[in-house]
């Protein structure tokens, strides 16, 4: 938020007020070039890129290492970083790039700006209930992860695929926080109990 990459966007349309999360991607001169709007509520599926957004400038979290994690959505990049922090890891060490879709445009551009990066970890969604145009089962995120991994391996990078346990890393974070909360409640409920 302090870097201006995340803020609350308020839009008025047809007498209604919409409040959404805005995730901004910048060029190397600090000019905003991409903005993804996403509903902050689990109950809403609103997703929209601001008009004239260029997906080659995805939402990025710059790191210091030679590794970059790539995600479909900014919230998954942030959730992954949060999970790393919760597990005691330095969440700021590695780079993170969110495409805003199933693409490698932002990653390709980011790699040009960061020649020190030698490892790519593809962290696309786990679309277990996905279907193709013919109605056949298709895990879109994992299919793309394999395609992207192969393309970047051929380009000389070490590549890995990290699949979330649930649908995506935001869902994994929510499950982790839920388990943590239940564990805390369990401990609270057992305080003061006497055992035979």
Features:
196 residues, alpha/beta, Dna Topoisomerase Vi A Subunit, Chain: A, domain 2, 9 strands
Biggest β-sheet description: 5 strands, mixed
Mean of all residue-level pLDDT scores? 89
> What is the number of helical segments per DSSP (H or I, 4+ residues)?
4
How many individual β-strands? Answer: 9
Report, as a whole number of angstroms, the end-to-end distance. 52 Å
The protein's oligomeric status is single chain
* Overall SS class: alpha/beta
**Succession of helices and strands:** EEEEEEHEHEHEH
* Lateral strand order in the biggest sheet: 5-7-6-8-9
Which segments are poorly predicted (pLDDT under 50) over 5 or more consecutive residues? none
Cα-based radius of gyration, to the nearest Å: 19 Å
- The CATH first-level class of the domain at 55-190 comes to Alpha Beta
CATH architectural name of the domain at 55-190: 3-Layer(aba) Sandwich
The fold-level CATH name of the domain at 55-190 is: Dna Topoisomerase Vi A Subunit, Chain: A, domain 2
Describe this structure in words.
With about 200 residues, the chain is of the alpha/beta class. It has a domain at about 55-190: Dna Topoisomerase Vi A Subunit, Chain: A, domain 2, CATH 3.40.1360. About 30% of the residues lie in helices and about 25% in strands. The protein is built from four helices and nine strands; from the N terminus they run E-E-E-E-E-E-H-E-H-E-H-E-H. It has helices spanning about 75-85, 105-115, 140-155, 170-190; strands spanning about 5-15, 15-25, 30-40, 45-50, 60, 65-70, 95-100, 120, 160. The strands form two sheets. The protein has a five-stranded mixed β-sheet, sandwiched between helices. Strands 1-2-3-4 form a four-stranded antiparallel β-sheet, with no helix packed on it. Helix 1 packs parallel to helix 4 (about 170-190). The protein is globular, with a radius of gyration of 19 Å. The termini are far apart. The model has no long low-confidence stretch (mean pLDDT about 90).
